[in-house]
Design brief:
21% strand; disordered C terminus
Length: 432
Amino acid sequence: MQLVILAGGKGTRLGLTDIPKPMCPILSKPILAYQIELAKRYGITEIFLLTGYLSNVIQDYFGDGSKWGVKLHHIIETNPLGTAGNFPSLKNKLNDRFMVFYGDIIMDFDINSFITFDKQNNSLATILVHPNNHPYDSDLVEVDDKNRVTNFLSKPHQDNLVYKNLVNAAIYIFSPEILDFIQKDIPQDFGKDILPKVLKSNKNIFAYHSAEYIKDMGTPERLIEISNDIKDGKVSLLNKINQRPAIFLDRDGVICQDMDTKPTANNFKLLPNVTEAIKLINNSLFLSIVTTNQPMIAKGFVTFDEVSQTNKTMETQLGNEHCFLDGIYFCPHHPDKGFNGEIPELKINCDCRKPKPGMLIKASKDFNIDLTNSWMVGDRETDLQAGKKTGCKTILVGDVINYSPYADHKFKNLLEAINFILKPNDNNQNSL
């Protein structure tokens, strides 16, 4: 696969004057070098660098790429044309599906997994999406239950937007057909102009969900954070090829108040100190994964859309407080019949309804989770049983029940539980 790196940024907010943004040094090595080394590690050896501002600095440093074991093509943009405007110059150079990086991002992700996902879908484009701790000022993506993109929400966002925390990470795989959507010599942006145009043409775009390390270094504060993360080894450790532990969280009674028979967005309210607890998870090596039974769907009390809207409300409230969930899984089934308005096809004895472990097992496959070093935090015995069935350690929180033989520990609330899990003792060796 060929790779195109957009390397024309100026880095004004970083105070750069004599080098372009992709040459900003992190631990004495330019960002662009990290990206080229990542590509080479996954066998991508033909790379097009689309440069503009101070392009000579990039050419002088990287040359033809032979020092890095790759072949570099320097394509110089004479007039700034946005992230997409210069792509028509590559029309006869890209011979198959190709990948795109933005040159101001530090990342380490499993490129093979990304390519495999792309091959499984008939699409014009696959985009990498992920949650972050500032979704309110990020370009967001909406998807359906098949991971097909349905909408792009570009910043700045309207007030009171309720969103799913799926941020466009500016990492793409495109069919060469994408070039047909880009006009020559006109400034255009992939996220704001080209990809929405592709959607309107009824072409498929799919979203690949990643929990790996992908951060732009657009501000001095982020640059310091990224430098520390590289130094501490966090960047490489979060690659999906490495198993990570997770903290599985029940939703109602753990993250939010129990909503009884009407779990809708209007009734959603975070419990005290939950955002502080989830921030602690986000700053560790643990994944934050919600697994929740939602039998009210099968009973006909709420719809799939209503539950999805409630989960979006949860993500919005967490995102506005600078924290996020890596994944949300819910079971819509219920085995017992006899409810007015019930959905017959959902009245089954499934494998995903806790105390069965189906949601945890699916999450472990999606994220390559180390279950034996993971935790299940819940307020009911069914949560703890599901955790035990997958080899997780378990914590009971809240006051719904006071004791369970399946609980390894009990705490009053989520924050106490997370502080216990992450404190530097024998409970865990996975905090940074």
